[in-house]
What we know:
GO terms for molecular function: hexosyltransferase activity. This is Candidate beta-glycosyltransferase Glycosyltransferase family 2. The chain is an alpha/beta fold and about 300 residues long. It has two domains: about 1-210, Spore Coat Polysaccharide Biosynthesis Protein SpsA, Chain A (Alpha-Beta Complex), CATH 3.90.550.10; about 220-300. It is about 40% helix and about 15% strand. It contains eleven helices and nine strands. Strands 1, 2, 3, 4, 5, 6, 7, 8 and 9 form a nine-stranded mixed sheet that branches. Strand 2, helix 2 (about 45) and strand 3 form a beta-alpha-beta unit. The chain is globular.
Amino acid sequence: MLAIIIPYYKLTFFEETLKSLENQTNKRFKVYIGDDASQESPILLLEKFQSKFEFIYHKFEKNLGSISLTKQWDRCIDLAKEEKWLMILGDDDLLAENVVEEFYLNCSEFENKANVVRVASKIVSENNQNISEKFQHPKWETASNFYYRKYKGLTRSSLSEYIFAKNTYLKYGFKDYPLAWFSDDMAWIDFAEDRSIYTINNSQVMVRISNINITGKKDNFSVKNQAEELFYTDLVHKKIHLFNSIQKNDLLMTYEISIKKNRKVVFKEWKFLLKSYFRNGKIVPFLKCFRRFFRDFVLS
Length: 300
C-alpha cells in the first residue's frame, strides 16, 4: 500500500491539497499528516475530510522544520508503519486525480525493478495558474543521467512528485543539508542504487511556487549556497563514478564554484580537484584548473 506523508505547517493552500487527495480515483492510500507545531491549526479543516479518505493526524510538540527540515520529514515518515511505498507531499502541492490509480496500474512494471518512481509534474502559481508546461521524463532513466539533465536546466524536480521504497529510505535516509536544499536530489541518487528511476507520465503533480515556500523565497540565498557546497562535496567525493567524463568535468567545476560562493578553496580541495581532472583524462580542464590554483592559491 502507498503512504502519502504530508509534513504540515501552512494552512494557506492545504485545503486544495486535501481536495486533490479526496478526488483520487483510487483510494488505496493512507495519509499521514505531521504537524510541525504550527500556529495554524488544520483541525477544523481536517474534519471536513474525515470520511473522504483514510488519514492520521499528529501534532508534534516542538517545531523541528526551522532547525532541520529533513528531520521533520523523518519523524513524519515514522508515523507510517506498514506501507512499503512512500510519497512526501508538500502541504501546498496538488495531485492529479489519477496519480494513485496510475501508480497501481504501473506497479507490475516497476515492482522489484525500481526503488524510485516519479510522476510528471507542472509548476503552478499561488492562483493555480500554470507557470510551466508538463515536465515528462524517459520511462526508465538512471538517477545520474536524470540529475545531469536537471543540472543542465533541461528538466526540473522537487520532492512531491516522487514515490520511493521505504526499505531504501531506511538504508540511506535524507542528507541533512540546510533548508533540505538538494536533499531530495541526493536522495534519488542514493535510493535508486544500481536501478533506474521509473516514470509515470500519464499523471502529474502540480508543484506550487509561492512567497511562503522555500523555493519561492528570495531572502535565503546564503543558506542555499551553503547547502549547494555540501551537496556538491558529497556528489564529487562519493558519486562521481556514476557520471561520464564530460559530466564529471562539469560537476567538478560546479563543485569548485560552490566553494567559492562561500569561502576560499583550501589546498586539500585544490589537490582533490587537480587529481580528479587528471584521472578523468582531459588535459584542457586539468590545465585550466592548475592555472586557477596557481592564480588563486599560490599567488594570493
